[in-house]
Every structure is written in structure tokens, then in C-alpha cells.
């Protein structure tokens, strides 16, 4: 007996959108330059608060500082997103992705306002940590596994990612934490186990 592999069109479209935005920006300037990114929609708290540019909470989710930043996020989105979307469906997946990304950015903004340490920030990692939090809950509900991913593997990845973030410079850790918590909570609210589709092979 084997489970039918679900498709994940929303995951693919999100990856394509991020890649397209990156190469469009690359054609115009340096994506590793904070001033350039700021001029094209990256998040910066003084601009959001003083100018009312709240759209930056959203647009920054599709912007990345250099190819390595993009590649790391897209690989994680492909692996985690494909499994999660196939399990919970397109609409719930998109709700978790975007609300987690916004929640991560809001928590990051609140932290910056608290410390007064403002930085230009961008990236899909808040949203991606949201789907990581969601898939952790889904895996727990499914006896520790979802698709090819185990709950222990997800937990190890979370710990490793947060450790790397807090021991490295230039990482928006509070966007990660905000996204992770939001994704976990949203999964609790939106997910319920469904009957798996499967096919029987001649060897079953």
C-alpha cells in the first residue's frame, strides 16, 4: 500500500513569484544593497510608522538579499511547502503562509520599535517558518510523520535554524519566531486529519 502523491501548485507558484521578483530586481540593481532594497519595498520600521507604508509588511516577503538568501529559502519552501499543501489543501496552505509571514514581520517590527535598532529587512523566511510550524503540528497529529518528513526531523531543523540565527549576524530572528508560532497556532485552528488516498500495488 502506498500513499498517492499530492500536487502542490501554490507552492510552485510562490517559488516562481519569488524567483521572478529576484531576477527583476537583479536586472535593476544590487539586491544585496540595503538602500536599493529599501527603494523597492523592503521592510523598514521608520517608513512604515512615519510614512504609513504598511505595504512593506507584504512586499518584503517576496524580496531577498542575494542569490544565496533566495536559494536557501526556496529549497526549504519546496520541501516543506510541497508536503504541507498536499496534506491541508491550497486555501489553508496560503492562509498559513501569508498570515505567518505578516505575523513574523509584525513581531520583528515590534521588537525593532522596542530596541530602537532599525534595519532594512526582507525575505520569505517568516512565512516559511510558519509552514514549518504548521507541518510540525500536522506531523504530530499523524503519528510523527507527514509524507517523507518526520516530526523529529522538523523539530531538529527548527532548533538548528534558530540556533544559527541567534549566533549569526544579520538574521531577523523575531520574524522567524513570529512566523513559527503563527503557523503552529493556525495549523491547530485549521487542520483536521483526513482520510488518506492510496493505491494498492500488486505486492500488497
UniProtKB/TrEMBL annotation:
Membrane topology of the entry: Multi-pass membrane protein
Gene Ontology molecular function: peptidase activity
InterPro entries associated with the record: Peptidase_S54_rhomboid_dom (IPR022764), Rhomboid-like_sf (IPR035952), Rhomboid_protease_S54 (IPR050925)
Matches recorded under Pfam families: Rhomboid
GO terms under biological process: proteolysis
Assigned keywords, A-Z: Hydrolase, Membrane, Protease, Transmembrane, Transmembrane helix
Intracellular or extracellular location(s): Membrane
Transmembrane segments: 12-30, 61-82, 94-112, 118-140, 149-167, 173-192
Family: Belongs to the peptidase S54 family.
Protein name, entry field: Rhomboid family intramembrane serine protease
Taxonomic classification: Bacteria, Bacillati, Bacillota, Clostridia, Lachnospirales
